[in-house]
Amino acid sequence: MNIGAKKLYRSRSNRMISGVCGGLGDFFGVDPTLIRLAYVFLSVLVSFVGLLFVGPIIYIVLWIITPQEPIAPAEAVVEAPPEPPAQA
Questions:
Q1: What are residue 68's phi and psi, to 5 degrees?
Q2: Strand partners, 10
Q3: Is residue 83 part of a domain?
Q4: Which residue, 25, 36, 41, 55, is the most exposed by fewest CB within 10 angstroms?
Q5: Phi and psi (nearest 5°) for 10?
Q6: Can you give the pTM of this predicted structure?
Q7: What is the span of the domain harbouring residue 52?
């Protein structure tokens, strides 16, 4: 059994394009902005070596294979029954 095992999802709430960096940030417990900065830095660094489209290809592959974060079930709202009309 994998009790407490973390799963990688694309974030629904912390997204710029598709939620890949937000999901990676949630998974590793890091601010997603740092993940985004590291991604841009590494993509630019790799492009100087001559591999121009490696960064975008990796992002698109992660976009396709990473499932979207499930929607959290709405908390049940318990409403009081309506009060009977006042007798005049």
A1: -75, 145
A2: 68
A3: no
A4: 41
A5: -80, 135
A6: 0.69
A7: 20-65
pLDDT in tens, 11-54: 888 888 888 999 999 999 999 999 999 999 998 898 888 888 88
Structure tokens at 44: 């630019």
Two tokens at 65?
């294979």
Task: Quote the tokens at residue 5.
Answer: 């095992």
Backbone angles phi, psi at 40, to 5 degrees: -65, -45
Residue 33, domain member (yes or no): yes
Domain assignment of residue 25, yes or no: yes
**58-63 contacts, C-beta under 8 A, 24 or more apart:** 59/20, 62/20, 63/10, 63/17, 63/18, 63/20
**Of 22, 23, 59, residue with least CA distance to 40:** 59
